[in-house]
Design a protein that fits this description.
With about 500 residues, the chain is of the alpha+beta class. It has two domains: about 15-65 and about 165-315 and about 385-485, Outer membrane efflux proteins (OEP), CATH 1.20.1600; about 75-110 and about 115-155 and about 330-365, no CATH class. It has twelve helices and six strands. Helix 2 (about 35-45) crosses helix 5 (about 165-225), helix 7 (about 290-300) packs across helix 10 (about 375-440) and helix 10 (about 375-440) runs antiparallel to helix 11. The radius of gyration is 41 Å and the shape is elongated.
Length: about 500
């Protein structure tokens, strides 16, 4: 069960000059209402194929628990038969002795968590013959018996016999953690894909602005050539600049379509023709993360780490089971029963509690494979598996520590990079404006203006990429912390 709490994301502000030069809307532009990040995540949680596939593993884990618990359900048995025989009996003068037998048996058995097995059985049969020497004809036999078998060494005790149930419960926990881990990954991938689409669309705006500037410069050069101020070379340079700008726009439009498909692949099912509205980056400046706090969150919330811890407990149960199996089988059994024989069904059943027929039995059985090599080998395997998982837990913990350290550094670095890129863009804007003013005054050339324009375009794209890299780094850190679930108010039933 998952829920998502909506919130608004502020718009990413670029220079006002960009919007002034954006041409008519093309297939790569945003269409429809605004598409917020939380909308994308809600759609991903509902329609993402990875989460749907993972949910079956969680469902199977719950069914495996039910199957383990069913091992202690009572078992009912019922059997009925009818037979006929005819034969000569040498001790009598009767030839062709016939016998008809009807037999019905019912029983119930129950396995207990101590390892004991309890069986309650009853039977009723009817025997009819043409033998005149038979004192009861037909004769009805009824009996009831209770038997108990309790292992004393191998497979004895509550811990061993409930190990399968406890292991299955841990399996449900691990499946829930794996599902939670997939949710964290899908949220992170959706965030990154959303930010990449923002970058692609904003880059397209920058490329279009550059194209508009190149076209304006081309027209100005043609006018200046007609007045004798510019040369044919100046016009040719401006024309090449327009061609290069158009190529950049085409490449940017392709990138937008690719990024839209990437996002739709995460949040939909065969919905690649769906329109995606306007997307925006958060405008607030993220805080510098604290490594200690981030690492503590990761230790507490990281599904992979918790899953290995649960796996360790499963292997501890396997070791307990293997130690119990590495013992001889010594079973204590006991049984008590009553039986009657009478001329009718009712009389036979009514006499069961106080009839003269009864029986009891006590037995003790010992079984031990010679050398017990197989059980000892399985015990060593269980010990090795436990030690291996303990080492794996340490490895996961160390990897988690390294990943959090790297993620915190990435956020810090990208914060600085975003600030530097913003200053570089400001400088490029001023340099372009200065070079264009020099060109308008006849103190510069078209080549220098185009170079300044290219530098401005690269600076703006670099600033966009720095902002997207920062948001992606934050998404990576929050995935490690597990805090993105709380951020979007996502609840999972593990």
């Amino acid at each position: 069960m998952m829920s998502l709490k909506a919130f608004r994301l502020p718009f990413l502000s670029l220079t006002a000059a960009v919007a002034a030069f954006v041409p008519a809307v093309s297939a790569a532009d945003a269409t429809g209402p605004e598409l917020t990040l939380e909308d994308c995540i809600a759609r991903a949680l509902e329609k993402n194929f990875t989460l749907r596939i993972q949910s079956f593993d969680a469902a199977n884990a719950r069914e495996a628990l039910t199957a383990s618990e069913a091992g202690f359900d009572p078992t009912l048995t019922l059997r009925t038969s009818r037979s006929f025989s005819q034969s000569d009996v040498a001790a009598t003068t009767l030839t062709g002795t016939r016998s008809e037998l009807s037999d019905t048996r019912v029983g119930i058995s129950q396995r207990l968590t101590s390892g004991a097995t309890v069986n309650l059985n009853g039977s009723l049969n009817r025997n009819e013959t043409n033998n005149t020497f038979s004192t009861l004809n037909p004769a009805y036999n009824a009996d009831v018996s209770l038997s108990v078998s309790q292992p004393l060494l191998k497979n004895a005790g509550f811990t061993v016999n409930k190990a399968a149930i406890n292991r299955a419960e841990l399996g449900v926990t691990r499946a829930g953690l794996d599902f939670r881990g997939q949710i964290l990954q899908v949220v992170r991938n959706t965030e990154a894909s959303y930010y990449n689409l923002v970058f692609a669309r904003e880059q397209l705006k920058v490329r279009r602005m550059s194209l508009a500037l190149a076209e304006r410069l081309f027209e100005e050069n043609k006018t200046r050539r007609n007045t004798g101020v510019a040369t044919d070379l100046d016009v040719l340079q401006a024309e090449v600049g327009v061609a290069n700008a158009r190529r950049s726009v085409l490449e940017a439009e392709k990138l937008v379509r690719d990024r839209q498909d990437d996002l739709l692949n995460l949040i939909g099912q065969f919905e690649f023709d769906s329109a995606l509205g306007e997307v925006r980056l958060p405008a607030d400046r993220p805080a510098i993360p604290d490594f200690s706090a981030s690492y503590q969150l990761a230790r507490s919330n990281q599904p992979e780490y918790q899953s290995v811890e649960a796996s360790l407990k499963q292997l501890e149960l396997d070791l307990v089971t293997a130690r119990s199996a590495n013992r001889p089988s010594l079973d204590l059994g006991g049984a008590v029963g009553h039986n009657t024989r009478d001329r009718s069904t009712g009389r036979a059943l009514n006499r069961l509690p106080d009839g003269d027929g009864y029986s009891w039995q006590v037995d003790l059985s010992l079984s031990m494979p010679w050398g017990m090599r197989g059980d000892r080998a399985r015990l060593r395997i269980a010990q090795n598996n436990l030690e291996r998982e303990q080492s794996r837990l340490q490895q996961v913990e160390q990897n988690l520590l390294a990943q959090v350290r790297a993620a915190v550094r990435a956020v810090e670095t990208n914060l600085e990079s975003a600030d530097i890129s913003a200053k570089a863009t400001e400088l490029s804007v001023r340099q372009y404006e200065l070079e264009k003013a020099r060109f308008d005054a006849g103190l510069s050339t078209s080549r220098l203006v185009l170079e300044a324009q290219d530098a401005l375009e690269r600076a703006r794209v670099s600033e966009l990429q720095a902002k997207v890299n920062l948001r992606t780094a934050i998404a990576d850190l929050q995935r490690l912390e597990g805090s993105s679930l709380a951020r979007y108010n996502i609840r999972t039933d593990e």
